[in-house]
Amino acid sequence: MKRLDHNTPTGKENWPKRSIEEILSNEKYIGVSVVNVGGEEGQIYKLNNSHPAIISKEMFDAVQEEKHKRSNVIVDENGTHRNTTKYSSKKTTVF
After folding, report:
1. pLDDT tens, residue by residue, 6-51
2. Looking at the predicted structure, is the pLDDT value of residue 87 above 70?
3. Would you say 88 and 69 are in contact if contact means Cβ atoms under 8 Å apart?
4. How many of the other CB atoms lie within 10 Å of CB of 32?
5. Which of 29, 70, 74, 81 registers the highest number of CB atoms within 10 A of its CB?
């Protein structure tokens, strides 16, 4: 974002990590709207192509796959826990 000269909505140059994580995980950028009817425990609907996508579904899916590969969270029969190995930044994926 900094390289592209895109500041945060409040005008700051540095984007918080959590903001970037939200952007990378939000389906609205591929044209999907998620509607929750009835509050927290209500019905959830996904509306495809509700607005123009700004990235392709293929790119979004590739990012989700890469995030999953880099994650150290493991879900197994014992529940959810963190993997003890560290992520190596030496592996690179080009999108």
Report:
1. 899 899 999 898 888 888 889 999 999 988 887 777 788 899 999 9
2. no
3. no
4. 17
5. 29
The DSSP annotation for 8-50 comes to -TTS-SSPPHHHHHHHHH-GGGGT-EEEEETSTTSEEEEETTS
Encoded tokens for 78 = 């014992």
Q: Residue 91 corresponds to which tokens in the numbers above?
A: 């592996």
Continuous segment of H or E residues that includes residue 37: strand 33-37
Supply angle C-alpha 19, 20, 25, rounded to 5: 100
Cα dihedral 52→35→26→31 (10° resolution): -10
* Amino acid found at 79: G
